[in-house]
Amino acid sequence: MTTFVSTASDSIISTSGIGARFKPFDHHGMYAFFERARVEEPVFFCPEINYWIVTTREGVLCLLRDAINFSADIALAPVTPLAPEALAILKAGMGAEPTQVNCDPPKHDRIRRVAGRFLNARRFLTLEPDIRRLAREAVGALEGRAEVDLVGDLVYEFPARVLFLLMGIPADDAPQIKRWASHRVLITFGDISPEEQRRGAEDMVAYWRYCVAMVNDRLRRPQSDYASFLIAHRGEVEPELSDNEISSLVFGLLLAGHESTTNLAANTLLALLGHRPSWQAICSDTSLIPGAVEEALRFSTSIVYWRRRTRAATVLQGVTIPANANVLLALGAANHDTELFPEPDHFDIRRPNASEHVSFGRGTHSCIGAPLARLELVVLLEEIVRRYPALALVDEQSIDYIRTIAFRGPKCLMACLGN
Length: 419
Prior knowledge:
Strand content: 5-15%
Helix content: 40-55%
Structural class: alpha+beta
Largest sheet: 5 strands, mixed
Distance between the termini: 57 Å
Shape: globular
Strand order of the largest sheet: 2-3-9-6-4
C-alpha cells in the first residue's frame, strides 16, 4: 500500500524535469500534461512559482481533508510577487482579514458556524423562483441576434445577479463589481505586469471600501441580507464576530459567490455544445441536466488549482515536501484521475460517479456555496434548452482562457442561436 502522507525526513526527492515543463498560467494542453505527470512524477516541484504540485486524486483529497498538517493561510496570497507600488496601495487601503478560504481552524470553524446558518441549501432553494426569473431574463435578452457571446452576453453577470439576492445589492452595481472581481482574481492568481498590479490594487481597495460601507449601512439599517444576518447573530460564537470580520466575510463572498460560477457556466456550455449528442440529450430530457452539471464540474472545473502550505516536512507519495512549503493542489488533475474515472477525457453526462469530483473541495473548507452553484446551472440550462434547443457553437473559433493558476473559463464563446 502506498503511504501518501507522513512527517519524515527520509524520502525520495523530486528530481525529474517535469516541473520545468509545467506552465501554471497556461490552460491549453493542461489535462494532457496532468496525465503525463501522474505517470512520470505525480508530486513535483515547479521553480517558476515555487510550489509543489500534487496531481493525483488521492493526494489532493489527503491535503484537502487535513487542516492540521496543511494550512489554508496562503489560499489568497498573490502567486506573483507584487510590485512595491501595488503593495503600498494595498497596505494603505485594505483591512480585510482571513475568515474562510484562507483561514485555519479554530477561527475558521467559529466563523463558519454563523455564516453557514445563512448560506445553506435550504435558503438557496427558496431563491429558485427568482433564479429562474433572472435566467429567463438573461436568456430572453439574446432574442433576435444571429450570433452571441455566451460569456459576455449570458453568463458574465447572471451569477452575480443571483448572489445580489442574498446580499441586498442593487442589480445596477453588477458591472462595477464584476470589474473589481476580475482584477482581484488577476492580482491574486494571475501573472500580470506592475502597472496591471497597481490598477488591480486600486480596484481591490475600492472593492473593500464598498463592502465596509455596506456593513456600516446594515449596522444602522438592518435588512434581510447576509451582512444583516451576520450582525444579528454575531454573538452566537465566542468571541463574537467583529465588524471587520463581517466586512471580510462580505468581501470574500462578493468574489467567491459569482466569479467561479460564471466560469463554470461557460465551461459547461462549451462541453455540452462541443459534444452534440450530450446537448441533444438534455434538450430531449431535462432530467439529465443535474448529471450533466456534475460531469461538467468533473470534466472542466472552473477552479483547476487550490493552495495549501505544509506545517512540517511531509512525505507525499514518496516525495519529500519541506516544512512551510507552498503546495498547489491540482483539482483538475484529480478530476481526471483514471484510478476513479475511466476515460476521463470523454465527456459523459451519464457517468455514474461524476459527483465524486473534488471541484468544490472536501473537508473543513468545502465550498459553502456549492448547492447554489449547482442550482444556478441547472436552472440556467433548463431555460436555455427550452428557448434555444438549436444553439450551436460558431465553427473554428479559438478558445482563449483567462491566465491564472486558479480560475479557468473561456474569455469568449461565440454561438448561433439557430432560431
